[in-house]
Amino acid sequence: MSDKIKVGDYLIIQRQKYTKLQKFNNLNTTVNLGKDLIELRLAENHPYFTTFHLVPKQERGKRVYTLDALSTPSEIRNLKELLIKESGNDNRNIIDDRQSQALSTEEILKLREECESSSEVIGKLVENSKSFATKTEYSQEKYLKRKEKKYFEYITIRRPSIRLLADIYWRLDPEKVLGVRFDTLSQIISYSGVCSVGNFLLYESGTNGLLPATMLNSIGAGTGGKLVHLHPGNVAQKQALLAMDYPAEQQARCVSVNIYSVLRHFYQEKAQLKESEKPLETIPATEETVGLEKMEEMNGTTKRKHDETENGKTDGEPEVKQLKLEKDKQSWELENETAAGIMGEKFDSLVIVAKEHPYSILKALLPFVKPSRPVVIFSTCREILTECYVDMKSEAAITYLRVTSNWMRQYQILPNRTHPDVTMSGSGGYLLTGYTIG
């Protein structure tokens, strides 16, 4: 993992409090921040956490910027110290008639083109404001922050982290991470006991790779821990995993496979050991295979074509053709074999984060968890977890069952004033936790 920005990396572009995930594909890569288009090529080979000044390019009709690295972030000027000279006692005599700014829209746009820095633009706006000097100091600070946000000319490029990725996905759309807020994500990791030793089982149906990336981060590099990441689709979502840029050795210990494909592979191998070379159709149905079929039916998932031909031959095929198929296995077949091998060893914890009802998934995966190991199920719907709670209580397969919910509130802390954020998320979802019984 390099300490310098290079082509191929995922970058976190930060402009004040706003952050955006961007892949640095090539030297022609650009990033859109609002109406501004920023070229990233000059960021190459600079250290992460470098602050860059946005230098405007002369392109008609477009706000295009290149980057100029600052030697130190202290070069950014403090607008409060520069522009607040006097303040009023209160705002009772200020009338918002939209006539306080003497500059027209056209004049402001021209200023933006002519001035070398955002500080100069904001300074001109303050000079031509009829009401700025009569506002309270607090109102003046709010005005400057609002204008600074609009005209701010610096960005910082940061390395992706689990916290930053979780915040970005949540801000864009909570459904991108199935409603898993960062505080709930930390609770999932805490309850599941993910660490550097052991095998861990995860089922998630679409979090942009945030859940497997977080669990792999907790396992760490150069350890013996392994993660089997189950998903319902043909291809796993891995953006967060790729963005974290884990070492190759660490990435190799996360095996992502289709849940139905790997379970069928596991039970076919198990049945073949018992029934020798009998075709799969003649193998008596077991409780596990019936449970798998029921789970597929409940989740509306059909068998994939490559699963239907997973044996590699049918009656009457030449043995030579079978040997050729075995030598030319596809990547998903190799991943299935690897995952099935780990499943035979059993797991030290189970985490389920699903769009669909988790009970059938829980029933299918519970046999692979060792006794006295944690089970964690997340859902945005309390009633779904309550149903699972009642069913698991009656079956006595999991003990110490608890349904919990996090309530997180952020506070704005400023000199002489502290208050909760006006806008905040209402719920971070619910967790059903417990321990398996041997």
UniProtKB/TrEMBL annotation:
<dbReference type="InterPro" id="IPR017423">
    <property type="entry name" value="TRM6"/>
</dbReference>
<dbReference type="InterPro" id="IPR029063">
    <property type="entry name" value="SAM-dependent_MTases_sf"/>
</dbReference>
<keyword id="KW-0539">Nucleus</keyword>
<comment type="similarity">
    <text>Belongs to the TRM6/GCD10 family.</text>
</comment>
<protein>
    <recommendedName>
        <fullName>tRNA (adenine(58)-N(1))-methyltransferase non-catalytic subunit TRM6</fullName>
    </recommendedName>
</protein>
<dbReference type="Pfam" id="PF04189">
    <property type="entry name" value="Gcd10p"/>
</dbReference>
<dbReference type="GO" id="GO:0005634">
    <property type="term" value="C:nucleus"/>
</dbReference>
<feature type="compositionally biased region" description="Basic and acidic residues">
    <location>
        <begin position="305"/>
        <end position="321"/>
    </location>
</feature>
<dbReference type="GO" id="GO:0031515">
    <property type="term" value="C:tRNA (m1A) methyltransferase complex"/>
</dbReference>
<keyword id="KW-0819">tRNA processing</keyword>
<dbReference type="GO" id="GO:0030488">
    <property type="term" value="P:tRNA methylation"/>
</dbReference>
<feature type="region of interest" description="Disordered">
    <location>
        <begin position="295"/>
        <end position="321"/>
    </location>
</feature>
